[in-house]
Amino acid sequence: MRAFDDADVLRVERRLLSAIPLVAHMSLQGITLQKEGLSLSAPLAPNVNDKGTGFGGALSAIATLSGWSLTSIYAESVKANGFDVVVHTSELTYLAPVKADFCALCYYPEEQLLDVFLHKLTERGKASLPLRAEIRSNGEVAVMLSGRFVAFARAEQV
Fold it and tell me: Domain with 90 in it: what CATH number?
């Protein structure tokens, strides 16, 4: 479900690509919106382990960044540059080795969960959002993430 516009996506994409140094090292591509959710793509080469497959830490980071990005976009729709987002909890299940370029797909939340998130964020300045994400490579789901992301009002800059 979408509750945001292109300007919200662009602000988050700029922050993702410029403010998180790890993203550049991973050669992470920009945000792509798909029918079922938000995706981030990356090449295997800079994210490889000693076995020639996707490094678990890199796969975890990119799956987490997909949830961070989607939560940040929803927060931007409430107030531009008004909220910080962090991962609160996450659980990962590794199903198969990643042997080629890959993408993380964070699914849009159920409408009711999103409505509660946006309402609490607007009214209280803080809210959490449960999300699911997958790492896919060669048409196969290799990693599943279940997480909760928290948005909270950004402290005023002095």
Answer: 3.10.129.10
With b for 16 or more beta-carbon neighbours within 10 A and e for fewer, the 20-54 pattern comes to eeebeebebeebeeeeebbbbbbebeebeeeeebb
Alpha helical stretches, state H, the chain: 6-19, 21-25, 56-78, 111-124
What confidence score (pLDDT) does residue 4 get?
79
pTM across the whole model: 0.94
Domain presence at residue 1? no
Residue 1 pLDDT > 70: no
Buried b (16+ CB within 10 A) or exposed e, 99-132: bebbbbbbbbbeeeebeebbeebeeeeebbbebb
Within 10 A of 55 (CB to CB), how many other CB atoms are there? 17
CA 108 to chain centroid: 11
DSSP secondary structure string, 73-102?
HHHHHHSTT-EEEEEEEEEEEE-S---S-E
What does the pLDDT read at residue 158? 40
